[in-house]
Amino acid sequence: MKFQLRFFIPLLLACCLTGSGSLLHAAEQQSTRPNIILCMTDDQGWGETGFMGHPILKTPHLDEMAASSLRLDRFYAAAPVCSPTRGSFLTGRHPNRFACFSWGHTLRPQEVTVAEAVKSVGYTTGHFGKWHLGSVQSNSPVSPGNSGFDEWVSSPNFYENDPYMSHNGVVKQLKGESSRVTVDAALDFIKQADKDKKPFLAVIWFGNPHTPHEAVSELKDLYPDQKPNFQNYFGEISGVDRAMGHLRSQLRDLGLAENTLLWFTSDNGPRPPQFKTEEARSQATGGLAGFKGNLWEGGVRVPSLIEWPAVIKKPEVSNVPCGTIDIYPTVLAMTGAKVSHQPQLDGVSLLPLIEGQMTARGRPMGFWTYPEKGHPKRSTDILLALQKQQSPGHPNPKGPAPDADAGSLKTQYPKDKLPGAAALVDGNFKLLKMETKRGKPRYTLYDLVKDPAEKQDLSQVDPQRLKKMKAALADWQHSVVDSLNGKDYAD
Q1: pTM score, two decimals?
Q2: pLDDT in tens, 16-38
Q3: Cβ contacts of residue 152 below 8 Å, gap of 6+?
Q4: According to the UniProt entry, where is the signal peptide (predicted)?
Q5: Are the beta carbons of 352 and 360 closer than 8 angstroms?
C-alpha cells in the first residue's frame, strides 16, 4: 500500500461517540468535497489567448473564464518540453527526480501520483487525452490505469482529429475534432461520477496546438486573413477554447460548476518553427524571450487560470511565482488526502493563494534540463499496432509489458557533475545557467518584474545575490540527484 489513510479517523471517532447524526455529517462532508478538473494544452505559449492580449487569436470562452478566475501570470511549466512537465503535474516533483528527462520518457512506478493520492479519500479518477508518460497498454507499470486512474481514454502522445485512443487498454477510434472528443470522453466520466454521487478528479490533456496543425474547416474559417499554416495553428487553439467552453457549460447544466475547481494551463512554451517573424514569435510568448525547449521565460512560463466559484468570488490576477509542481500539493490540501511515504516535493500548496491569503512563495523553484535525448512516440502507429494484437477479453499482447524497466535504479548519477541548462526562480529574480559549446557554465541574473524579457543581466551589478542563488541552485540540484538515485524510495 502506498497510502496510510488518516482522513476519516476523526470522523469515525466522532461517529462512535455521538451516533448516527455524525454518520450523516460524515456523508455530507463526503458529498461536499470539491470536484477537480485539471486541463493542460500542448505547446500553447504564455501569450496565446485573448485575455493575454494576443491581437489575432479568438478565445472567447477562455477569456470569459479568465473574467471569473484567479489568473496566475507567473505560472511555470516544470520543464520546457512535454513529458517532464506532465510528470511534475502528477507528482509535485521536478521530473529529473524520477528520470523523466525529456519527451517520451516515463514516470517511475515508485512515484505517487495525484490520482493515487485522492483515491485514498474516496475520489474516482479519470485521464483523458495525451499521456506521454509511458505506454497506454493496460499491463504497463506506467499506464494511466497503473498510475491511479480508474477510467482513461488516452493517447501515447499528441493526436489530431478522429484520434485513436486507448480506452482502459482497449484501442478504439473517436470521431470528431480532437479537443472536443477529449472533453466529451471526460464528460461521460463526470456524468457517471455525478450519478454515483462520488467526488471526481478528471485530468484532461489536450493534444493541441502541437504540430502538425490540422484544424477543422469551421475553425480555420475564423481566420480568413491568415495564411494556411496560421489558419490551422490558430484554429487548433480556438478548438481548445470551444472545448473548454463546452466543458464549462456542461458543468453549469449538471449543477456541478459551483464546487468544481477547474484549472487550465499549458505544458511548455510555443514551438518556434511556426513563427517566421519576430512579431509572431513575440505574440506567442507575450513578449517573453525564448520558446519551447529552453529555459528562458518563453519556454517555461505558460497561461494558467483557476476557476472555483464556491471559493473564488471575484476575478484576481496574481504575480506570485508558481507552477505545475504546485498542482499535486494543492489538490492534496483541498481534499485532505494524506500520503504516508511522500517523496520529497518541490511544489507548495496554492490553496492559500486561491483563498486570497498568500502574497509570496515560501521557496524558490528550480529548473534543470538534463542532457538526455527524447524518445519518439507516434501515437497512431503505436495504437494501430496494438489494436491488431488485441482480441475480445485479451487487450495485452503476449510478451513482456512495455516499459517494464521504468522503475529501474540501475543507472546511478554523479553529484559532482550537474550537466545541462538550469535555472532558479526566487521571488522577483531568476538565475539562468547556460552551457557554452565547451560545456562550461555561464550564469546570468534577471529581475523578472522589471525585466520580464530578460534583456538586462544583473550578474555583475548584484554579485552577492548571484553568489547566493548559485549556491541555492547547486544545493537543489544535489537533492534532485539524490532522488534520481533512489533516496526517496528508501522506505
Answers
A1: 0.92
A2: 333 334 333 333 444 589 999 99
A3: 126, 127, 128, 131, 136, 143, 144, 145, 166, 167, 168
A4: 1-26
A5: no
